Amino acid sequence: MTTTTVQNQTKTNNAAPAKAQKNYGKIVLTLHNCLLPESTFKETPSQADGLDIETETDLRILGCEMIQTAGILLKLPQVAMATGQMYLQRFYYSKSFVRYPMETTAMGSIYLASKVEEKPCRIRDVINVFHHIKQVRAQKPISPLIVDQNYIELKNQVIKAERRILKELGFCVHVKHPHKLIVVYLQLLQYEKNKQLMQMAWNYMNDALRTDVFMRFPPETIACACIYLTSRKIGLPLPNNPHWFLLFKVTEEDIRDVCLKILHLYKRAKVNPEELDGKVDGLRKIYQANKYIQAQKEREAKIEEKKAESPTASTSKDSKRDSKKDKSPKTPPLSSKYHGSHKKRERRSRSPYDRKRDYSNKRHKSRSRDREVDRSRERRLDDKRSRVSSRKYDDYDRSKARDRDDKRKH
Question: How far apart are the first and last CA of the chain?
Answer without folding.
Answer: 126
